Model the fold of this input.
Amino acid sequence: MKLHFYKYQGTGNDFIIMDNRDGSMNGLTTETVKSLCDRRFGIGADGLMLLNKKEGYDFEMKYFNADGRESSMCGNGGRCLVRFADHMGIHKKAYHFIAVDGEHEAEIENDIVNLKMLDVDGITSYQGDFVLNTGSPHYVKIVSDVMDYDVFEKGMEIRNSADFEKEGINVNFVEERKPDEIIVRTYERGVEDETFSCGTGVTASAIICFHNDSGYNEVNVDTKGGRLTVKYDRIGEGKFQNIWLCGPAEKVFEGEVEI
Done:
């Protein structure tokens, strides 16, 4: 069986995308998704997404991690899927789609795709670090010299620690550079490695670094794959709304693969 696929990336976070509005790819198995995402024996990607039809919405986002399992929300994936929808002829001034964590809004401004994220209703302190959910669960640790930090070893250790081993957690290491600028590196569950960028992780990190700042915030975030911007309103202790993840999303190539 031949599958037509598209490869997209958002600040180096890369995805295989398939147009599944006819439902022909509903039967993709965990092993098939895992093999397609394999960087040596497959197409290679941090995850795979299906663009589905959904009544009442512009589309539905279905996301799988590189390990083949359906996963929680992926911020850069959502931005890439919005760009893909536009390329597939779904042209909207404002997009309204559904994902595993609920409804999302998005818009495209020139080369930037802006995605509205899930509201955050609380932050948990954990052994001097922080845990919160931005559509996916995230652990945030503030460090110095993050570009020299052993993200793989330290991230794997936290992700597989007793409190997080069963469900897994994404682990972000953050360096604060300026009052409105941070650097983030992320170890992602499901990929089980560092990725070049993680949208929900960038969002979580921006909130943690400025979670005591009342009102509107706009934070520039550098990742290994490029720069993203996070905008949000702090409305109370541990409560954040109007959270937007903004950055580029681009088509890399398309092709066919035999499965």
Notes: The mean pLDDT is 97. Residues 124-248 form a domain with the Diaminopimelate Epimerase; Chain A, domain 1 fold (CATH 3.10.310.10). The chain has four helices and 17 strands.
